[in-house]
Amino acid sequence: MNKTSEQKQQIKLAVDCIIFGFNNNRLELLLIHRGFEPEKGKWSLIGGFVGNDEDLDDAANRVLYDLSGLENIYMEQVRTFGKADRDSSGRVVSTTYSAMILKSEYNEERVGKYDAKWFPLDELPELIFDHDEMVGSAVRRLRRRVRNFPIAFNLLPAKFTLPQLQMLYEGILSETLDKRNFRRKVSQMNYLVRLEEKDMSESRKGAYFYTFDEELYKKELNFNL
Amino acid sequence: MNKTSEQKQQIKLAVDCIIFGFNNNRLELLLIHRGFEPEKGKWSLIGGFVGNDEDLDDAANRVLYDLSGLENIYMEQVRTFGKADRDSSGRVVSTTYSAMILKSEYNEERVGKYDAKWFPLDELPELIFDHDEMVGSAVRRLRRRVRNFPIAFNLLPAKFTLPQLQMLYEGILSETLDKRNFRRKVSQMNYLVRLEEKDMSESRKGAYFYTFDEELYKKELNFNL
DNA sequence: ATTTACAAGTGTTTATTGTACACTTGTAAA
DNA sequence: TTTACAAGTGTACAATAAACACTTGTAAAT
């Protein structure tokens, strides 16, 4: 910025969080029920205003904690929405952040306390303001990034099976993947290590558990699915 | 956003424009000389505050016009910088936009009026605040996008030669490209149409002029270099 | 003990795309 | 007529992506 402003600026700055989870082989979104006007009763992203002395990134994390109890979640900025009339309650510019979390660790019980709810991506309720656009851009970004960075593991437990991983990818990308091609690529990633233990809950044969080894990944830094 | 704010928010919202040009086979950046404190005398991006009833995108265009005279420039949002202490003059959050323009249409004469100046990307002066970070992220985004979208043509005149185009790409990516491989890819793009006319200024033989046909491109929508 | 049901697991072939590499051509100027 | 020089052209090899079907291991049922 550079020029001295003419008259007092009256714009509020907010953040909105797009929280992805994975359940029943579908990508889900955490929304909260809006308990006040305007748009009372509709659903919205987890959002709030930025504090005067708060880094924008910190604001996103604080707002997420305040409204959902979720802590220490790694979020990334997506983009900023700044249409003058986007929020019917006044002039608000909002920067979106997104994160992927393990839904099973944020289950119905904890969710209920905050009037929050998980929705499958293709069954979203009506959202306030331009939150559907926000979701759209976050999903597009997720689909782009999930192919080149090992970020999808955030949606799975520390131990997961390859069928699980593949279904996760199919859910995110909403396309089916060839099992053998998928597994070939996975087997080239040395940082995906197979454990001795098997998951016997989904089949008679059982599927080997794998883990994502962060340290090993840092040595290669390449990922492609 | 969702929660009612506790105390009055005092954050100013700004935009900063990263304007790319191409000259002498190098990527350049348009900067303006800062004529006031703080950081007086240093160079900065073209930036200013967002108006109360102004769309964020419009603010970027208006600021660009006010400070450089450039009009009808297509800009895209890059990202938003929001560290609490990023601007030493107070709390300012700034969203960056970038554009590519034809440097020859914005020459020394017009530039001078605005105390602006073109700098090759690898010879940038010291910039104020976090503007170097802003430039970095815009350059990374440019390098990513220039391979998959026909955006680099904005940096060239309507008629250009293939040697020119290749040098442009080499300048942007800062790597050398194989001439034959480059030209093979170009020749697969039917929307890059060869004219009868040749540019005789750079060689005895002369190089054919080409143009980018927007309408034809829209039918294919695929680009890869 | 044997059979059944079923998801987990495994290789090969073909097509597509990327990469490396060197000579010929057309023209203006000498 | 020769020279200088950038523009222009094709082929072979390597790497990556995509298509495709059968075998294996185990628990449960008989």
From TrEMBL, chains A, B:
Keyword terms: Hydrolase
Entries under PROSITE patterns matching the protein: NUDIX (PS51462)
Segments forming domain Nudix hydrolase: 10-141
Keyword Hydrolase: yes
One GO MF term: hydrolase activity
Organism domain of life: Bacteria
SUPFAM superfamilies recorded: Nudix, Winged helix' DNA-binding domain
UniProt-recorded name of the protein: NUDIX hydrolase
Source organism per UniProt: Aestuariibaculum suncheonense
Lineage of source species: Bacteria, Pseudomonadati, Bacteroidota, Flavobacteriia, Flavobacteriales
